[in-house]
Amino acid sequence: MTEAPTSKKAICLEDLRRKILTQEFEPGSYLEEAQLAEKYEISRTPLREVLNQLAGEDYITLHKNRGAQVAPMTHKTMRNFFVAAPMIYAAVSRLAAEHATPAQIMQIKDTQLLFRKAIRDGNAAERALMNQRFHEIIGEMADNEYLTPSLRRLLIDHTRIGMTFYNPRNQTLAAQRNVAADQHDQFIALIEAGNADGAADLAVAHWELSRAEIESFVTPQGMTIPLGTAPGAMTQRGAS
After folding, report:
1. Which of 63, 100, 198, 222 could form a disulfide with 190, with the two C-beta atoms 3.0–4.6 Å apart?
2. Residue 73, SS3?
3. How far is the CA of 189 from the CAs of 89, 109, 196, 199, in angstroms?
4. Which GO terms describe its molecular function (predicted)?
5. One CATH from 3.30.1360.110, 3.30.70.20, 1.20.120.530, 1.10.285.10 for 75-218
6. Is the dihedral of CA 28, 61, 124, 150 positive or negative?
């Protein structure tokens, strides 16, 4: 039976996804079941069903006798993320161009409008979520049961990483946001035209834009601090 969109259980599920993606619940932190049950006004049984679904979607890990842990982001996770991302994004985009339906193309166009609005409004959380949804729809277009789980996990971490370094005051990042939005428009055009090679190539270019943003945050330019005059230097010059 399909869960009603307005049910407390459905609201809980969607809100927990959002809080994890926007890092309101930090990677590696534990969720308190009693607090969640009280907040969302649901009993332990439907809450555990929600947690089981989130675990199946790789948002959390369930530990016996320890509860639900938000999926951590370790050094190993990050390394594997950088290795896998371009391959998965390219493969999914290629398949999307081959299999997208008119209804899915309309859906991704609507999501793109919301993505651009979030950029204009300076809403970091909504921008990250709409970007995640945009690429999630591309995954739905690809319709591949082997790639979909990998893409889903990739998007969870990509969204969380984006929330970590996003700074609307950084003019370079702001310009890159507009480039990313333009590339989204190109994705739509290529997928709608059925251009599989073009979509795959664009996916790699789109990833490179994200990778450059992440690297600029992780390895920023060092601060230049004047060291001043060495102690005794003025005295020595005056004595000569």
Report:
1. 198
2. coil
3. 17, 10, 11, 9
4. DNA binding; DNA-binding transcription factor activity
5. 1.20.120.530
6. positive
CA angle, 105 as apex, 179 and 2 as ends, to 5°?
120
Q: What is the pLDDT of residues 108-127, one digit of tens each?
A: 999 999 999 998 898 889 99
Q: Whole-angstrom Cα distance, residue 29 to residue 59?
A: 12
pLDDT of residue 156: 94
Starting at the edge strand found earlier in the chain, the sheet holding 67-70 runs 30-31, 67-70, 60-63
Domain edges within the chain: 8-70, 75-218
Contacts (Cβ under 8 Å, ≥6 apart) of 89: 135, 151, 154, 203, 204, 206, 207
Token couple for 219: 């390895």
CATH class of 8-70: mainly alpha
Q: What is the pTM of this model?
A: 0.82
What token pair was written down for 149?
């789980």
pLDDT confidence of residue 176: 80
* 8 Å CB contact between 164 and 23: yes
Q: What is the pLDDT of residues 51-92, one digit of tens each?
A: 999 999 999 999 988 889 999 988 898 899 999 999 999 999
| The Cα angle at residue 161 between residues 155 and 166, in degrees rounded to 5 | 120
Q: Is the pLDDT of residue 235 over 90?
A: no
pLDDT band for 1, please (50, 70, 90 cuts).
Answer: very low
